[in-house]
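User: My advisor asked me to double-check a structure prediction for Tc1-like transposase DDE domain-containing protein before group meeting. I don't want to rely on an old file, so could you generate it fresh from this sequence?
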Amino acid sequence: MDAKMYRHILEDSLLGTLHDHRLGPSTIIFQHDNDPKQTARLVQEWLEHQNLLVLPWPPSSPDLNIIENVWAEIKKRLETYRPRPRNTEELWRVVQKLCEGKEGS
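Assistant: Sure, here is a fresh prediction for Tc1-like transposase DDE domain-containing protein from the sequence you gave:
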């Protein structure tokens, strides 16, 4: 994904969600981290043009988004899980087992 695609996602998803909930861009504080596509001039100018207030995020800060940490842990456990899932359905069953603490590898 690049900055152009990220901006497109924001245009479609963020503005659409705000509209669905009858919120204006100036009524929220938007959060994202310092990923290069998010700090690109193209995105920053678009956010400013939309009057979106962005939560300041210090450079090199630890990732506070818990879901990324959860997915990293699941991925780590999947690497040692045997037998390896052979399709999407098996993968989903294994992920569910891992999340429930029923590793049974």
